[in-house]
Amino acid sequence: MKKLAELVFIPAPGFSHLVSTFEFAKRLCDRDRRFSVTFLIMNPLLDPPAVSFIESQQQIIKLIHLPQPQPPPPHLKPYPEIYKFTHRENYKPLVKHLLSNMMLSTRSASNSVPQIAGLVLDFFTAPMVDVGHELGLPSYLFSTSNLALLDLTLYFVTHPTHVKESDPELTLPSFVNSVPTSVLPAPVFSKEDGFVVTLKLAQKFMVMKGIIVNTFQELESYALHSFLDTKTPPVYPVGPVLGLSSSAETVDSARN
After folding, report:
1. pLDDT digits over 27-41, tens only?
2. pLDDT confidence of 3, banded at 50, 70, 90?
3. pLDDT score, position 162
4. Highest mean pLDDT among 36-45, 69-78, 110-119, 183-192
5. In this structure, what is the dihedral angle of CA atoms 134, 39, 196, 84, given to the nearest 10 degrees?
6. Which of 210, 187, 218 is nearest to 200 (CA)?
7. What Gene3D superfamilies does the annotation carry (predicted)?
């Protein structure tokens, strides 16, 4: 009998990210009973809808609420993206300590006790891949969005220059046509804040064991094909992952 495998998810605290991440985890466990899942929750970063949603999931998936880390230095407050990035970075020692204890407690256990097999990280918690490397655990990125956003983010690894709003277009491998800069997310134009964080996150994506994406062949066939000849980690489309199984009451209360 094979040992059971436990996957540790470290999701981003935003409501939209949590819904699809929980849904993917439940789908994974339903399809293969050898998997179990534990979520590490960054409580202080949660917004009210996210708190309501998590409370509705406590009977379904094992949750571990992380303690409050050291806050970022005050001088970073004018840079909201860097401030939030640093806050998440400060969770690393707490996560490493927790995972080390979990691994130690299951190392000599029987086959009936799940062994930690790897980490599943979010777009915004990707820096936790460093903890995985230190503990010898493979890390996978779960992109709750599509390949288009992933490709845009990875673009900055090979083109680490600041994008200007005056630039006419960007040519991205996963897009059939050039992309007008007017439709790009606002953070990429912030040279001292959002762009810095975007580049750091993209660099972490490149050292993942694999990238799991909430998309499917029929939706992004061109984009999926564009990733076949790149140096990025393997891409696994698992979509569409939608939170349709959640009760309407739970979702409505969370949104309100």
Report:
1. 998 898 889 999 999
2. low
3. 67
4. 69-78
5. -120
6. 187
7. Glycogen Phosphorylase B (3.40.50.2000)
Distance CA 169, CA 171 (A): 7
Domain range annotation of the chain: 5-144+241-255
Q: Which residues make Cβ contacts (< 8 Å) with residue 82, sequence separation at least 6? A: 76, 193, 196, 197
The residue type at 51? V
User: In the predicted model, what is the mean pLDDT of residues 179-199?
Assistant: 90
pLDDT number for residue 13 = 82
User: Is the pLDDT score of 228 beyond 90?
Assistant: no
Percent of the chain with pLDDT over 90: 56
62 in Cβ contact with 37 (< 8 Å) = yes
3-state percent helix, strand, coil for the chain, nearest multiple of 5: 45, 15, 40
Which is catalytic among the residues 87, 122, 151, 193?
A: 122
Choices 3.40.50.2000, 1.10.8.10, 3.50.50.60, 3.90.170.10: CATH for 5-144+241-255: 3.40.50.2000
**Residues in CB range of 144: below 8 A, 6 or more apart:** 12, 16, 17, 20, 21, 122, 123, 214, 241
Answer whether 1's CB lies under 8 Å from 111's CB: yes
pTM for this predicted structure: 0.90
Active site includes 32? Answer: no
Q: Which candidate in 17, 87, 151, 193 is catalytic? A: 17
Told to judge if 122 belongs to the known catalytic residues of this protein, a careful annotator would answer yes
What DSSP element (H or E) covers 101? helix 92-106
- Give CA–CA dist 40/155, Å, rounded: 29
